[in-house]
Specification:
Elements (H helix, E strand, L loop, with lengths): L1 E5 L7 H14 L4 E7 L18 E5 L2 E4 L3 H12 L7 E8 L11 H11 L4 E6 L3 H4 L6 H17 L10 E6 L9 E4 L11 E6 L5 E6 L12 H6 L2 E7 L6 H11 L1
Parallel strand pairs: 1-2, 1-5, 2-4, 5-6, 6-7, 8-11
Antiparallel strand pairs: 3-4, 7-11, 9-10
Helix pairs in contact: 1-5, 2-3
């Protein structure tokens, strides 16, 4: 199996090391693992692509490249430049430092990388490690992802539905903020919504007197509705959410048509 991996935390992120080990286990002895990851951190860029300016790409080692772009850029670079059109069998994006559950999904570069792969017709999985008090004292906060990652990916490859629709399915995995031995299992879950968590801005005045704004996030450990991703993560489960890039609110189309006559 040929696997392309990327992330949004950057080429030197510890989560990418965890993902590399997961990918090698899945690819097998005769498989290939190719890395194309951002040269610098790209957290929060979503499904951004560098449409209006070029990006530099550099080979750092065998099958290992860094690109000055977003995770979606890296997937495009991997498919069309690094692999010269020799398409991967699977794209893995992550392992993100922090959860990409609930409303975080909409901002996530990790999700953006997997989404671009799906739009290119390649099976894709995004993986993220929820952080919290339960991971603070571990040797690595990525312990749950490290120990359960390969089994989770293999379960999806063997048992999940992989379609070939225009907006094809991809999968979003979040590992709970606990040690590996405390993980309760694997659950399919819809995306939740933290009703009291919002992004905002915090102004600061620089020494030169100019105002700068920092983007500020809200509490991450507020549970979402029962049975949804964040709630299940906080209960100790690995969650898998099937996703598509289609943003249409299908439940509202017929009603809107009737209202418009």
């Amino acid at each position: 199996m040929r696997i392309l991996i990327t992330n949004d935390d950057g080429i030197n992120a510890p989560g990418l090391e965890v993902l590399t080990a997961i990918a090698h286990e899945i690819a097998g002895k005769n498989g290939e693992v190719w890395t194309v990851a951002p040269a610098f951190e790209q957290s929060g860029v979503g499904h951004c692509i560098s449409y209006t300016h070029p990006m530099m790409i550099a080979k750092l080692g065998p099958r290992r490249y860094a690109a000055e772009g977003s995770p979606a850029d890296c997937v495009l670079a991997g498919i069309y430049d690094v692999l010269q059109g020799g398409r991967p069998d699977l794209v893995l994006s992550g392992v993100n430092r922090g959860n990409n559950a609930g409303e975080n999904v909409l901002y996530s570069g990790t999700i953006g990388g997997a989404m671009e792969a799906a739009l290119q017709g390649v099976p894709a999985i995004a993986l993220s490690q929820f952080m919290g008090p339960g991971t603070d004292d571990l040797d690595t906060p990525f312990e749950a992802a490290r120990d359960h990652g390969a089994a989770t990916v293999r379960a999806l490859l063997d048992k999940a539905h992989w379609d070939s629709d225009d907006y094809r399915l991809f999968y979003n995995v979040n590992f709970p903020p606990i040690g590996a031995k405390a993980v309760k299992g694997l659950r399919a879950a819809p995306q939740g919504y933290r009703t009291e968590t919002f992004f905002g801005v915090e102004p600061h005045i620089s020494p030169s007197g100019r105002k700068f704004l920092w983007i500020k996030g809200g509490p991450q450990h507020l549970p979402t509705a029962p049975g949804t991703d964040v709630a299940l993560n906080l209960e100790g489960y690995i969650t898998v959410t099937p996703m598509r890039a289609d943003l249409t609110a299908h439940d509202a189309v017929a009603d809107l048509g009737a209202r418009l006559g």
